[in-house]
Write a structure and sequence with these properties.
The chain is an all-alpha fold. It has twelve helices and no strands. The longest helix has 19 residues.
Length: 222
């Protein structure tokens, strides 16, 4: 009996030791600390070679990153470019620190960060070089690239409604679509930057008059 108890005790201790061992994790944990460098390199390559001329190898070499690291994060060139375009757009926005100047006009203008001529020209080269990416991913332009701007613009406009600055009947969704449509048209079709001078004209000549004095409300149009 004593031998049996000893065997049970040894077995119990062995089981406890096994249970104390941490479970093995499959695969390597993704390291996102280099994402910004890789996305920045992607934008650089897009500006230089365009989407059709870009390869994952070129980006890896520019970012000094291993291809295995990149493919664990992005399974294809299309996925990488989609994230890079979204990152490029959001990089000019402080989503967690929205301006609150007291007027919608100044709030909208404050969203635009000062950009150097070189940065503006690079962004134009990127948009002009998207090539087949746009035809294969038409939803990306108004969706993932410009949606962050639309989210912020909606917030600023709803805040303007709350303080009585613009009409409660204002078609905010339409105003947001006008901004993103003009931004994409100016960059993709006209090849011009969406700069502060142009944006000021759009705000003063189109957006504010429509928001303050809407001819119809969105509900009346349905």
């Amino acid at each position: 009996m004593d031998n049996i108890k000893k065997e049970e005790s040894v077995g119990s201790k062995s089981a406890d030791k096994v249970s104390e061992k941490p479970a093995k994790t499959l695969g390597r944990k993704r390291d996102h600390t280099r994402d910004a460098q890789i996305l920045e390199a992607t934008i650089d390559i897009l500006a230089e070679a365009g989407f059709d001329g870009m390869t994952m190898d070129m980006v890896a070499a520019r970012a000094k990153a291993g291809k295995a690291t990149m493919y664990r994060r992005w399974s294809s060139k299309t996925e990488l470019v989609r994230d890079a375009l979204t990152w490029m757009n959001r990089n000019h926005l402080e989503l967690d620190l929205l301006p609150d100047t007291g007027t919608l006009r100044n709030d909208l203008l404050a969203l635009l960060k000062p950009q150097s001529i070189e940065e503006g020209e690079r962004k134009l080269r990127v948009l002009a070089g998207l090539g087949s990416f746009l035809s294969q991913n038409p939803e990306t332009v108004n969706g993932e690239i410009f949606e962050p701007w639309a989210v912020v613009n909606r917030e600023l406009m709803h805040r303007a409604v709350s303080r009585g600055e613009i009409s409660t009947r204002a078609d905010i969704e339409m105003a947001c679509q006008v901004i993103t449509s003009m931004a994409s048209y100016r960059g993709l079709v006209q090849g011009k930057t969406f700069d502060k001078h142009f944006y000021t004209s759009l705000i003063d000549g189109v957006l504010l008059p429509a928001l303050k004095n809407p001819l119809t409300s969105p509900n009346e149009m349905e």
